Amino acid sequence: xxxxxxxxxxxxxxxxxxxxxxxxxxxxxxxxxxxxxxxxxxxxxxxxxxxxxxxxxxxxxxxxxxxxxxxxxxxxxxxxxxxxxxxxxxxxxxxxxxxxxxxxxxxxxxxxxxxxxxxxxxxxxxxxxxxxxxxxxxxxxxxxxxxxxxxxxxxxxxxxxxxxxxxxxxxxxxxxxxxxxxxxxxxxxxxxxxxxxxxxxxxxxxxxxxxxxxxxxxxxxxxxxxxxxxxxxxxxxxxxxxxxxxxxxxxxxxxxxxxxxxxxxxxxxxxxxxxxxxxxxxxxxxxxxxxxxxxxxxxxxxxxxxxxxxxxxxxxxxxxxxxxxxxxxxxxxxxxxxxxxxx
Amino acid sequence: xxxxxxxxxxxxxxxxxxxxxxxxxxxxxxxxxxxxxxxxxxxxxxxxxxxxxxxxxxxxxxxxxxxxxxxxxxxxxxxxxxxxxxxxxxxxxxxxxxxxxxxxxxxxxxxxxxxxxxxxxxxxxxxxxxxxxxxxxxxxxxxxxxxxxxxxxxxxxxxxxxxxxxxxxxxxxxxxxxxxxxxxxxxxxxxxxxxxxxxxxxxxxxxxxxxxxxxxxxx
Lengths: 343, 219
Known about the structure:
- The structure holds 2 protein chains of 2 kinds.
- Chain A is of the alpha/beta class.
- Chain A has 9 helices and 12 strands.
- Helices cover about 50% and strands about 15% of the residues of chain A.
- In chain A, a hairpin with a 2-residue loop joins strand 3 and strand 4 (about 30-35).
- Chain B is elongated and about 80 Å long.
- The chains are: A alpha/beta, B alpha/beta.
- At the A-B interface, helix 3, helix 4 and helix 9 of A face helix 7 of B.
């Protein structure tokens, strides 16, 4: 597998990025703050209405370094994409399958199989590691229910049914999610998922982690020549990176949820890191966003062995590996799309 | 010749990819995937020197032209010759803007040193076929210039070699028609391939995804 390079997170909204030789330069009011060689970078993520020079965008596009612009709160604004990686054949196959509900379902179900499998691993591991802290009976029940859903889903060729099964499984998983928060329970709790806006600390962190993951996923899909906007499970909706959301399903729990849980359980984030607005919306403070991002960056560098490829790689490359495997499946190299099955 | 529009031409440089590994060729020419490694960057750097289409040197009996675009209707290939040398000789052909007659030699620049495989040879022979067709002449000799040893090596471009080029080109077009990326056939050559990370040569020896999923569920 290729090497994972760094991501540059620009969190100050008044920094302008420009190109100087092979470097990205961060400028603030005529003053040069930093310069970083671009050959070390995988992607650049800008929070706030940061500007970037067309020269920099072109340079990055040519070298497959993604530049993403997000609002201060992490909502997606835009991404700089170069010339689509050729491969019309691959994309036409993708579109053809996307138009065919039954074929879509065959791929979509493996995303869901992966998701449920991994969520089940999280639950099992938690019950094993903290038998005195969690309600083991409840955990075993949830784990069993997920396993039986996976078996049903393996046979399912109907998208609507598939979504039904997924919803069902989400209930089992969410029911024990709060129990996996072992520390700071007064300030961190999970009742249900709230987005737009998130209404508690945990949801604020989940939303942020999903945004980061979705961006990495979309960039990975474009790199291998797939269209991140045309999905199999998520249907087309203008402006939505449906395929990125599809492939992300299997990584939400094992990548993002686990990450958020460990920030809480290791007390790397505390109640002070959040601000509650008058309407109940919860925001992460600027300082806490930095903590979050540097921890995220560390997580991406952590190594593990890819369960299907049996190759050592960093977590940050998993989106790329899955995108590549999906492309290889669509091109006829594999009998099915191999989801990332984490143990 | 409905089928012989230039639209259907493939890249001549693909011949060496195709011979190196059919899958590598398909990944580059059908799937448009490309990843740089040290070797490809070295190669590009080397070709910057040859890639100067407006320099035309006259050295005594010799006319040296760089980056000459060529094509062959027969092979349905087109590409660029690094260098073409025209050597004044009575048995040669006339050129439209130079007095006298010339024999034609393609010269291909290569990084590294002479190799054992004949992938490079095929590419040079294909260039010869293009030149023969375009200039109505015979091209029996070509040269490789190896950057590492800074020396050129003469090769004879036999009819037999040219026939094998014709076979390979036909084969390439058949794959391309189907837009087919052949499955992995691994070998020691995988180690020096710049597309390893895209090709995933390991997929060849992998168990089926079905048994991977079922196996994981059973554990």
